[in-house]
């Protein structure tokens, strides 16, 4: 499935708009990743644990959105937008959401 942030797809003609589709993932960051991130906050450097968690959540949100588009009979998603938030009383949850317009192309 083609997923793009643009409103057109090169070489394709949009024949039908099937509706807006969403993908949402909320995931917890475990204690060990928090400890590693805390140390990197003090000493500097990148947090591989958080980066891996973010990449995984992003991939899951895109897969969920694509699955919902397929259920509508669409073969592409245009105008995709992705957003990230931290949730929870201790900011221990990561929410990744994406949305776009499911379309059928020729």
Question: Briefly, what is this?
Answer:
With about 110 residues, the chain is an alpha+beta fold. The protein has 2 helices and 4 strands, in the order ββααββ.
Number of helices: 2
Q: What's the gyration radius in Å?
A: 17 Å
The share of residues in extended strands comes to 35-45%
Give average pLDDT, whole number. 88
Strand order of the largest sheet: 1-3-4-2
Essential attributes:
alpha+beta, four-stranded mixed sheet, UPF0145 protein CBF27_10220, 2 helices, 106 residues, 4 strands, Translation Initiation Factor IF3, UPF0145_YbjQ-like, elongated, UPF0145_dom_sf
Structure in words:
With 106 residues, this protein is α+β, with helices and mostly antiparallel strands. It has one domain (2-105): Translation Initiation Factor IF3 (2-Layer Sandwich), CATH 3.30.110.70. Helix content is 35%, strand content 40%. It contains two helices and four strands; from the N terminus they run ββααββ. The chain has a four-stranded mixed beta sheet. The longest helix is centred in the middle third of the chain and has 24 residues, at 48-71. The protein is elongated.
